[in-house]
Design brief:
Blueprint: E1 12-16, E2 70-76, H1 79-91, E3 94-102, E4 106-113, E5 121-126, H2 132-141, E6 144-151, E7 156-162, E8 167-176, H3 183-199, E9 203-210, E10 213-221, E11 229-236, H4 241-251, E12 255-256, E13 260-261, E14 265-271
Parallel strand pairs: 1-11
Antiparallel strand pairs: 2-4, 3-4, 5-7, 6-7, 8-10, 9-10, 11-14, 12-14, 13-14
């Protein structure tokens, strides 16, 4: 993905504070899931009626400055329709950069305007968390690089693109939070994790949330070290704040690099 053109060892982390969130414990990867290109194990199901909980799909609202450069799509949890609709967006140079899946119901994709010559993409479900280590490793070894992932208490979904850069290692780190935490404390914890992984040459490649726990995917690849600035936005899930901030960031030239939401919060990393 061209939104992560990594060549040197420099990375800068900016923490964008927006309302309260919370800090927690650092851990290593959970035992996860499976991989293969394009959609696997996604049955035909009815989609959710409109938007994810507590959210409004507002990307086409006139006041947005960069409405032509990002979009949120709500797709049915149906392999044939999903392949068609995502491929249509990619053909228009709107790349999937964020993912939130409600298994059996809907697939929410955050798209951002990115020009790519290779439009090969993949979407897979890892049906058991016990398979994550094996299956995600297989996916990476097959030359797929995650754009984002979605995690539940039972399964994992990964959306990815082809990459010529071999993957050396990967890790999922987790942070738990509670009502006593502040935005600054949770973002400081994320900062700590990002910097610790950077020291091991791993870069952030997606975020997910399950309950009050955030999960961050880090990957080390040959020839890819960050030269871009990473910022992380944490916003109240109130139907507008996150999308207005997202629009402003895209307007300023940033590219989203993941998307995770809970009933209360929305987390979006950006590279610029």
């Amino acid at each position: 993905m061209s939104n992560r053109k990594f060549v040197s060892s420099a990375i800068f982390l900016l923490l964008i504070l927006s309302f309260a969130f919370t800090g927690g414990q650092r851990t290593t990867e959970p035992d996860p899931v499976q991989a293969s290109p394009h959609i696997s194990e996604v049955p035909n199901r009815e989609p959710l009626p409109s938007t994810p909980p507590n959210q409004t799909a507002v990307s086409e609202t006139p006041e947005f400055k960069a409405a032509d450069r990002w979009k949120i799509g709500i797709h049915p949890y149906d392999s044939e329709v999903l392949n068609s609709e995502i491929s249509e967006q990619i053909a228009a140079d709107l790349w999937p950069v964020g993912l939130q899946v409600l298994t059996g119901n809907s697939v929410m994709v955050l798209y951002s305007k990115v020009i790519e010559s290779d439009k090969t993409w993949g979407f897979v479900r890892i049906s058991s968390l016990d398979q994550v280590n094996t299956r995600l490793t297989e996916l990476l070894q097959e030359g797929w690089l995650p754009l984002d992932f979605s995690l539940s208490s039972t399964d994992m979904h990964v959306i990815s693109s082809r990459s010529p850069n071999p993957v050396e290692s990967w890790r999922v780190m987790s942070l738990s939070y509670d009502s006593t935490d502040t935005p600054r404390s949770i973002l400081a914890k994320i900062d700590q994790v990002v910097r610790s992984q950077l020291q091991e040459k791993r870069i952030l490649f997606g975020v997910a949330a399950v309950g009050t726990t955030l999960y961050l995917l880090f990957i080390e690849t040959q020839g890819l070290l960050a030269t871009q600035e990473l910022s992380i936005g944490l916003y109240p899930n109130d139907g507008s704040t996150a999308f207005l901030a997202l629009d402003q960031k895209v307007f300023e030239g940033a590219v989203p690099a993941g998307y995770a939401y809970t009933d209360e919060w929305i987390l979006i990393p950006y590279y610029k």
